[in-house]
Amino acid sequence: MIELSVGELGSLLRTRKVSPVEVVGACLRQIERLNPQVQAFLTVTGESALAAARTAEEEIRRGRYKGPLHGIPYAPKDLLATKGIRTTNGSRVTAEWVPEYESTVTARLQAAGAILVGKLNLLEFAMGSGQRGLVAPARNPWSLAHSPSGSSSGSGAALAARMVPLTIGTDTGGSIRGPAKSCGVVGLKPTYGRVSRYGVTALSWTLDHVGPMARTVADVAAMLQVMSGADPRDRTAARRAVPDFTKTLGAGVKGLRIGVAEGYFFEKVEPEVERALRAAMGELEKLGAVRVVAKVENAAICSPALGVILGAESATVHAERLRDSAGLMDPLVRERLEANSLYSAMDYIQALRVRTVMMEEMRRVFAGCDAVLLPAGNPAPLLETEIVQTDLPPAVPAAPRPDTFNLANLTGIPSLVLPCGFTAGTPTLPIGMQLCAKPFGEATLFRIGHAYQGVTDWHRRAPKF
Amino acid sequence: MGITNGVARRELLLALAGGAAAEGQVVTVARWEAAAQVYGVRIGKERWAVLEPVMERRRAQLEVLRRFRVAEGVEPAGGADD
User: Fold this and answer.
1) Going from the N-terminus, what domains does chain A have, and what CATH number goes with each?
2) Which of A52, A206, A353, B27 has a Cα-to-Cα distance from A84 of 20 to 30 A?
3) CA distance A184 to A459
4) Residue B57: closest CA among chain A residues belongs to which residue?
5) SS3 A445
6) B75 interaction partners in chain A (CB closer than 8 Å)
7) Is A129 tagged catalytic?
8) Where are the domains of chain B?
9) What are phi and psi of A120, to 5 degrees?
10) Which CA distances in Å does B60 have to A341, B38, B57, B64?
């Protein structure tokens, strides 16, 4: 049962061939079995999850089926406030915080009948290394010596370990897409404004995004359907109508122009990854997509601009915590926040103007294509190289890290990562590809990703324990 | 950031009253004292010792950002569909 997608589970639940109690029970058993090794969950809400499952079972029995997420277990990154349930932000500073309110995203999932089974591990405040977090850092189910990437580390690891079929992550500089890539699952950073951020601990108001993660593109689409929409409690949540993503999910890719982002984004990308991406593009062409070249001018400016915006805003977000509780923070988080507080207003405003320039640049790029394909970084690094105390260069140089995520955070465009291969050798690690579209173009990304998963089986492969 | 080898730079000039030092002039003020003035004494001497090399490392990226030419009239944007 734990191998089934939400689509498959939903069908069984709706027709009462399986009970939500059985589904939740299977997830809880998998969490109990593997969490000591994987450390994906910080909190498990087994009792309340089983109670919610019994309620869902009764509702479905009485014909009050709420839709495709009814009775489906899920878990959010522990950065989302859950009323009455400890919300730690992965930090000793807020380790005992029990919110009196619910984030909009978890409230919407609950209203759709989804069942919360726990809260997921992360890098402290979505910006640390996990070294001095609440528990040990999450590990990659494909190789416990490797990192699941962060900061939504538990969100990626829990999916790969089949602990839960749906998770929520947040993404300020790749924190949904990195774990999706490293764990061989699907992650969407939606358009800025598509999903409310109310009740989600901020890192950077300009760059933060909340998004769905799952093992299939169809499941991510189903989840986004429920999560999206205007919210009076978040003025950045767009008031535009949310399309029915299921309507176009199976429309195929025939005639869609996919621009391959040559140049900068492929710098530092390992040859094995590049081969996998080109093979994936080949599959999409076989399905009828049209390959074009997408040249993003000034792509390299995204990283410094994002660094200053994220830095200045995170220092503002956490100013009080830094003043009062610096000693409880991971050394890296403290160092970053202190250094971040030293950026000047002029640098910050220059970075915001660069953001405008890059948004215009992407408008130009999307005039020539429907989506852009680019790498999602290299395969997962060793965990020990990820856990650092400082941003100063390590004694042993870290593996090169391609700059492939910042563009979408800076410009707010939607970006989907899905598995497109595995490395050769031992251990075998997932390889991911990244697709971007124009603002509010998630449906296009889903069409492409769903078509690709229809002719490949990377997403069906599971790590062995 | 801006204070290297005791040479006055833009931020230090801002801190020294009335521009007593000229850009590029060697100054005798201790690094931390200068930093404390520039940054409003938000960090202590011990932490500055930790942060100074971090800030120095960030300088190259900052210079790239500062030198990037943005046309006059380009303003910070709002949401993704602005």
Assistant:
1) 6-460 (3.90.1300.10)
2) A206
3) 7
4) A392
5) helix
6) 353, 356
7) no
8) 10-67
9) -100, 145
10) 18, 20, 7, 6
